[in-house]
Amino acid sequence: MMLKKWEKLPPEMQTEEVRKYYDILKKKRVSLFFKRAFDIVVSLIMLIVLSPLFLILAIAIKIDSRGPVFYRQVRVTQYNKRFRIFKFRSMVQNADKGSLVTVGNDSRVTRVGKLVRKCRLDEISQLIDVFRGKMTFVGTRPEVPKYTEQYTPEMMATLLLPAGVTSIASIMYKDEDELLDGVEDTDKVYVQKVLPAKMRYNLYAIEHFSFFGDIGTMFKTVFAVLGKKYPDVLAQSDDDATNHEIEHEVINNG
Fold this sequence. Notes:
Elements: H1 16-26, H2 29-49, H3 51-64, E1 70-71, E2 74-77, E3 81-84, E4 87-88, H4 111-118, H5 127-132, E5 135-138, H6 145-148, E6 163-166, H7 168-172, H8 176-179, H9 186-207, H10 211-225, H11 238-252
Parallel strand pairs: 5-6
Antiparallel strand pairs: 1-4, 2-3
Helix pairs in contact: 3-4, 9-11
């Protein structure tokens, strides 16, 4: 995985805010090389090993509700490029005609979809995207263009690397759908409250990027899904911790 030369970046990314993070990643070429090599080898092995599970999920999804096996929504990845993500469909067909944010007890989620989402099985098909180079194992979760178009100049720095299957933000906000449950305007609250909060973790991850750090995040993700709680890496002082709690309170109150 190599970074483009600065002058080759999209114009919207050639800003002072992005330059800070670009310079950090530029010094970590070896880690970026091993990151891509790891993505290719491990995703290929996992695709082969998990192929029986892919088949079982495909059959269960088709039996449970009408529609395709995969949900191929357009998302944004490295260098602000768009791609169609692979996700096992967990909602009714054409569910994205409503809000693009899923909340707890969302009526659009199918019976099989509830189990699939609870166990994060809808995400494993993204191994296809990782192998293709559209995504990486650890990185900022891919957003839809509607949300990336509202990124601040600094947030654009998260597009220096491919979108990820998991991240520190994913661990901290693993119950995001429950957090937004009951909010009247989910899109508005997501853009104004949740997205900026998640971006703080994504930018922190770039500042502290390392190959072995990514491996650690992958293991933490597995344990987080199993119920383990992790301390807030950004809560380095009582004030920071208090601010983070306030963010959650504001979100819950809409």
